[in-house]
Amino acid sequence: MSTIKIAATDGSGSFDCLVVTPKTQQPTGVVVMIQEIFGINAAMRSLSAWVADMGFIAIAPDLFWRQEPGVQLDPDAGQAQWDRAFALFNGFDQEKGLEDLKATIAAARKLPGANGKVGTMGFCLGGRMAFKTAAHTDADCNVSYYGVGIEGMLGDAPGMRGPLLMHIAELDKFVPPAAQKAILEGLAGHPKVTCHVYPGVDHAFARMGGHAWDARAATIANGRTAEFLVEYL
Fold first, then answer.
1. 100-122: per-residue pLDDT in tens?
2. What residue stretches are annotated with the Dienelactone hydrolase domain (predicted)?
3. Which of the residues 136, 167, 203, 214 is marked catalytic?
């Protein structure tokens, strides 16, 4: 693992990105890993390593850098960590975050060992931002794990630019049944969107070792993700 800096397009500074490269050296696709509300923490580093183990380059930008660079929170370490995470989420400028992701995608295409193709993969807040990258960037593909608030973004769906794979947790306490219904109905038949609902699991079911971890659902979702990335990157 290494860290690079990318300049923000608004001239306000630069932000760190974790980079994990695969053991193989041939040109390969890059996956922009989009964080949960807990920053580039141990879970995001593990997920980035997993993507690299699949043979892709993983790059994870620090989206909270404008508020507090280098945030690493633990969702299983008590309420104080959650309170801090939600404070950062509430203070997060999503449009500036989208611009940072655009800058990351552009830089990712030129990374050493990259083949020029770039996808995004986000979790929770990152899952929401992956929906935005599908609609508003030139990413070659996008993956959303239990994205929050997407029911309020469906107006962007007609202009979807890149293919989007969505993983939805049936019992997600942050995406209740009415929201899921709106998402599934609003995206039904969309040629660039594929949605999968995983029965009996909660938000963050794919965070290995976390309180909501579900091995069966995560394995199925991750297998679909792997096939999707191979197809487009």
1. 999 999 999 999 999 999 999 99
2. 15-232
3. 203
